[in-house]
Amino acid sequence: MTVAETVDVQGFAVTREVDAPPDAVWEAWADPGLLRRWWGPTGFTCPRAEVDLRVGGTTLVTMQAPAEYGGFQVHNRWTYTVVERPARIEFVSTFADADGAVITPEDAGIPPGVAAEVPHVVDLEPLPGGRSRLTVTERGYSNAEAAEMSRQGQEQCLEKLAALWPAGRDA
After folding, report:
1. pLDDT digit string, tens, across residues 7-18
2. Residue 109 CB coordination number (10 Å)
3. How far is Cα 136 from Cα 89, in angstroms, rounded to an integer?
4. Is there a contact between 127 and 18 (Cβ–Cβ < 8 Å)?
5. Stretch 130-136: mean pLDDT, rounded?
6. DSSP letter at 25?
7. What one-character-per-residue DSSP string does 92-115 give?
8. For 28-46, what is each residue's pLDDT tens digit?
9. pLDDT of residue 4
10. Neighbouring-strand partners of residue 135
11. Is the pLDDT of residue 144 over 90?
């Protein structure tokens, strides 16, 4: 697996090469059971993933902190604007309450600098040998610290996603 990241004040991109074809990696975004296995940074779990992956549809995900961080939960709602299977997903991420209603980042307990709406682009490219290049780009941060915090979380999420297909194992 190769790793590449870039960060600027407005956003960042994180790229992973995954040992699975684009259709399989797409399912990691579309299948609630798979999404629950990788969403959230290292040590966090995803107890809820309700997925409606279509233009205008929404996904509601909950990530839960480990006990040593207090076990708090953060809910996000993703509203899809582009869905081009198996190559591209675009969505806007907002913070939500437990019922899925949009709330401000401040109400969600998020540090300053994270926008109320964060556009995401997920690109999947086929690679030789049945592998994929996955790139997630996020935009909308007002300071470098918030972008870096989010980049680190996204990097850890994609590490967990890539681990769904250990090297050398058929997808």
Report:
1. 445 899 999 999
2. 11
3. 9
4. no
5. 98
6. H
7. EEEEE-TTS-EE-TTTTTPPTT--
8. 999 999 999 999 999 999 9
9. 45
10. 15, 123
11. no
* Pairwise CA distance, residues 32 & 171, whole Å: 18
Point out which residues pair with 61 in neighbouring strands: 49, 76
Written as six digits, the tokens of 77 are: 């709602």
| Domains of the chain with bracketed CATH | 3-162 (3.30.530.20)
Return the structure tokens found at 48: 């809820």
**Strand 73-84 to strand 58-64: parallel, antiparallel, or no bridges (unpaired)?**
antiparallel
pLDDT the model gives residue 33: 98
Asked if residue 114 lies in contact with residue 144, where contact means CB atoms within 8 angstroms, the answer is no
Eight-state DSSP code of residue 69: G
Counting beta carbons within 10 angstroms of the beta carbon of residue 17, is it exposed (0 to 12), middle (13 to 18) or buried (19 or more)? middle
What gap in Å lies between CA 84 and CA 94, rounded to an integer?
Answer: 21
Of 137, 152, 165, 151, residue with least CA distance to 17: 165
**Do the beta carbons of residue 74 and residue 62 sit within 8 Å?**
yes
Q: What is the DSSP letter of 67?
A: G
